[in-house]
From TrEMBL:
Species of origin: Deinococcus puniceus
Descriptive protein name: Alkylhydroperoxidase
Residue ranges occupied by any Carboxymuconolactone decarboxylase-like domain in the UniProt entry: 56-140
Record InterPro entries: AhpD-like, AhpD_core, CMD-like, Uncharacterised_peroxidase-rel
Alphabetically ordered keywords of this record: Oxidoreductase, Peroxidase
Domain of life: Bacteria
Any one GO MF annotation of this record: peroxiredoxin activity
Record Gene3D superfamilies: AhpD-like
């Protein structure tokens, strides 16, 4: 099935071809439609990754489970970790899009949404609780020095109250964002313009 050729540089959201609605499986079309209804636009990552439609849907199923469903960490904690990992990896797409989500979660929690901007560059400059700082430190270490991570690195997490299920989910979220960051960075995914102004 023919795909739309790579876009002009001005409108480019990926360095690869981006499929149209006629190119993708019905499950992808439904997801695009749901995103449009819920947030007012289709995230560029949904369009770019749908080049391989069934693989995209499989990725989304796990991503959605880890980030958007009730889990062992709070949504704010998961987004904070997402932003730390994405900042460490210099992933433009995820740092911007999840920075927007983090701003909104912080606003809802009655905290300063500008904290998200600090976290994406250097979480140490943000006024974080000991628990949140421990999550960020572990996320950064596992992202930047995975071969050096040892059992002892779990102790600071336990010291701030994380149980084994929470630690496992933390590692899964970190792993998910390292995967997504690699894909986004390798293929030049750019975030939707809408993210830049959200929760400002």
């Amino acid at each position: 099935m023919p795909m739309t050729p790579p876009q002009s540089t001005q409108n480019q959201i990926s360095w690869l071809a981006v499929p149209t609605e006629t190119d993708v499986p019905e499950g992808v079309r439904k997801l695009w439609s749901k995103a449009e209804a819920n947030v007012g636009f289709v995230p560029n990552v949904f369009r770019a990754q749908a080049l391989n439609g069934e693989q995209f849907l499989a990725w989304w199923g796990y991503f959605n489970l880890l980030l958007n469903k009730e889990g062992f960490l709070t949504p704010l904690e998961r987004e904070m970790v997402a932003v730390v990992v994405s900042g460490a990896n210099r992933c433009i797409y995820c740092a911007v899009s999840h920075g927007a989500a983090l701003r909104e979660f912080l606003r809802q929690a009655g905290e300063n949404p500008h904290t998200a901007d600090l976290v994406v560059v250097n979480w140490r400059h943000a006024d974080l609780s000991p628990r949140m700082a421990a999550l960020c430190a572990y996320a950064e270490r596992l992202t930047l020095h995975p071969a050096e991570v040892a059992e002892a690195d779990l102790q600071p997490l336990r010291d701030v109250g994380l149980n084994d299920q929470q630690i496992l989910e933390l590692v899964q979220v970190i792993g998910m964002f390292n995967l997504t960051n690699r894909v986004s960075g390798a293929l030049g995914f750019l975030p939707n313009a809408e993210y830049h102004g959200q929760a400002r």
